């Protein structure tokens, strides 16, 4: 089931998400819903706070090539164990900040540990787009958006655009 994606500025996007204590059927269903929502958007990552659920859950799939096998990952309680000193700059966007993009510099490689939807603990190293995406989604769990890395004036400009977009959408829906 597709879920509505919160649009910035929404106070829930600035909250720190809570640890997931048990993998209930409802949480597994949430993960499936989030993958469906992400693919439909279309996006390569989605964090539970973006659909209004304040829990430490992210989904991602950075396979973008036509004809390649998708690789959906579901991560409960993900955390970075190690990050490279080497950094890379990538133009990021966000499903909660539609049609806005900016360069963000992050570590080029990260090692992440998480619990998958079967309850198994997993650890994997990521680089390239996968590293950028997993860090972007982990930021969401800490109440941080990619625009928080920008200079204040640019951040305010994007926030004003999002406020205008939300007003326009409310008028259309109303």
In short:
By secondary structure, the protein is α+β, with helices and mostly antiparallel strands. It has helices at residues 25-40, 128-141, 152-173, and strands at residues 45-47, 57-60, 73-83, 87-94, 97-107, 109-115, 121-127.
Report on the architecture of this protein.
This protein is an alpha+beta fold and 174 residues long. The protein has a single domain (11-173), classed as Alpha-Beta Complex (Peptide Deformylase), CATH 3.90.45.10. It has helices spanning 25-40, 128-141, 152-173, and strands spanning 45-47, 57-60, 73-83, 87-94, 97-107, 109-115, 121-127. A 5-stranded antiparallel beta sheet has the order 1-2-3-6-7. The chain has a two-stranded antiparallel ribbon with strand order 4-5. Strand 4 (87-94) and strand 5 form a beta hairpin. The radius of gyration is 16 Å and the shape is globular. The two termini are 23 Å apart.
């Amino acid at each position: 089931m597709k879920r509505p994606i919160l649009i910035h500025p929404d106070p829930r996007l600035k909250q720190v998400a809570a640890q997931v204590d048990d993998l209930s059927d409802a949480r597994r269903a949430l993960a499936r819903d989030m993958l469906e929502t992400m693919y439909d958007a279309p996006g390569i990552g989605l964090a539970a706070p973006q659909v209004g659920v304040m829990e430490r859950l992210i989904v991602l799939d950075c396979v973008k090539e036509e004809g390649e096998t998708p690789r959906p990952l579901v991560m409960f309680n993900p955390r970075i164990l190690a990050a490279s000193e080497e950094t890379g700059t990538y133009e990021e966007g966000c499903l909660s900040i539609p049609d806005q993009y900016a360069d963000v510099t992050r570590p080029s490689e990260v090692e992440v540990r998480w619990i998958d939807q079967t309850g198994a603990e997993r650890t994997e190293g990521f680089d390239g787009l996968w590293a950028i995406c997993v860090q972007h989604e982990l930021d969401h769990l800490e109440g941080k958006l990619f625009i928080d890395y920008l200079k204040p004036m640019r951040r305010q400009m994007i926030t004003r655009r999002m406020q205008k977009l939300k007003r326009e959408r409310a008028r259309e829906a109303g």
